[in-house]
Each structure stands twice: as structure tokens, then as C-alpha cells.
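Example (one chain per record):
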Amino acid sequence: MHPIERLRFVARAGWGGPAELGVEAAYALAELAQREPAAVVPACRRLLERNPACGPLWWVSARLLCAGDPMAEAEWCARALEDDATEERLEAALSGRRAVRHGGVAEVASAEVVLVPSDALGPGAMVVDGDDRGVLEAARAAEVEIWVVAGAGRVLPARLWQALRTRLNLPAPGARTAVSAYFDHRPASSVVVDLHGISRLATTNGVTEIEGALSGCDCPEPAELLVAW
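Predicted structure:
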């Protein structure tokens, strides 16, 4: 299968979560870099146009664009996403406290911690699924402690995060080139919310204060993804 065709399946995004999409994108972009190096930047941009809320896709794209050896970097990114220890770190940090991820007002009010998953997070805000927004608002209203769960590739540096937010606010473009013609679907269920009321952030490195996780972000900010396109 040609890597562009493989990227098309990633862009359609209906078959897997952020980590799975990141793994597939990493290998497809690395293969494309070996076959057609000039096509990598356009492919990254088209992929992100159709999946602007997926943090791991921004993370993978940024790391591969800055890598000297795209295939080695793809393998590293894939391992990081597949071996993500966020859930194990989270379980240890909860230490038996009653935590809920879903439910109505009664369930939220009776919890000790409400866990909210995020597909991408940066300074001041995060991306959550529209279905999780109600749980977040209920936890804020009930003044229950809120922890955000953001696994590998979800925490982005300031300028890349701003690029994500800008892209998320733009409509999905029509096919403009032979490459972009492969990317014909864009999910639209994610929303950006502020970090008000969030006390802790669970990542692959453990459960920490949000400021500490943002300052330790391991993602570069390639110019190719920061400019408008």
C-alpha cells in the first residue's frame, strides 16, 4: 500500500483513538519521507486539516519533520504511544480514591475525583470530546477535584498548541491537490475548554501539576506547522 493511501485511512479517523492514529501516521509519514521527501510537509498539513483536534498527530508530525532519521523517529514515537504508561501511573496516584469518568450529577457529586480525558492540551486550554464536556461542567459545579488524563503525545508546546486551535477553527478544505484529494473526511466532535478547576494532570510521566507537565513538553515546533496554510 502506498503511504499516501495509508494516510487516507488515518485521516478518516473513524476506526481508532488518538494513539492508534498517531502510530499509523508515524509509519506512513516515515515511509513517505523515504519515497517522496517533498510530499511529507503537504501530507502532514492535509492530515492535520482533517484531524486538527488530535494531539498525537501534531506531536508525530512535528517530531518527524524535525528528525534526521524519520524511520527511527517513527519507531520511537510508535513505541511511546503503544507503551504509554499513563493509566498505570494514574491508578497508582489515585490509590483507591473513588474516581468517575462518566455519569450524571449524582455520580459526579459522590466522587472524590473526576477524570476527564483530553486529546490535546496546551497552555490555558485543552481539547475534550463533546460528550465529556457535561461531566467536566458538573464536576466544576459540584466542586469535585478534577484530573485531566492526557497520555503520550497529547501535551503540546505553546506555539504548536496555538496552531492546533487556529486549525480547529477553520473549515475543512476541499481537495486542492493530488495529495489532498486522498483526505476526504473530518470528524467534528471535539471542543476546546479552559483549564479552570483542573487540579492535576495525568501523563505518561505520572500525575503532576499542569504547569510542570507543560514545561516538560518534549515536542518541537517546526515552522512548517506554525504558518498558515
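Caption: The chain is about 50% helix and 15% strand.
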